[in-house]
Amino acid sequence: MMMLFVIILNQASEFLGALIYQALRGHHPGKPSGFRVKRILGKGDTWITEYMINYQEKPVYTVSIMEFREDKIIHETQYFADPFEAPAWRSQWVEPIDG
Questions:
Q1: Which tens digits make up the pLDDT trace of 2-20?
Q2: Most buried among 25, 55, 71, 85, by the most CB within 10 A?
């Protein structure tokens, strides 16, 4: 099987190819219900997307680093993080951000 591109999931120490990734998304137990792009940064063949995915009404922050060749993704690394409450001790120095 020829891999069209590779996806790296560092937090789970996994990698997979495009065809497997399509099957994986179709069988995700969290049934993603949508996403919201917060920002996209990049130049040339490397682009970074910061977005939020909703899994059963639970937001998960996501960063995707993508490498392109001839306008196609050849490599993608994704990072996921659950939101958390900001600690009270630093409230005097920061301002809250709306989700």
A1: 445 667 776 777 777 666 6
A2: 55
CA–CA gap between residue 73 and residue 18 (Å, rounded): 10
Nearest by Cα to 11 from 84, 78, 83: 78
Query: What pTM does this model have?
Result: 0.72
Sign of CA pseudo-dihedral 40, 75, 79, 51: positive
- E strands in 6-81: 6-9, 14-17, 32-43, 46-55, 58-69, 72-81
- Round to whole Å and give the CA distance between 90 and 93: 6
| Distance of alpha carbon 39 from the chain centroid | 12
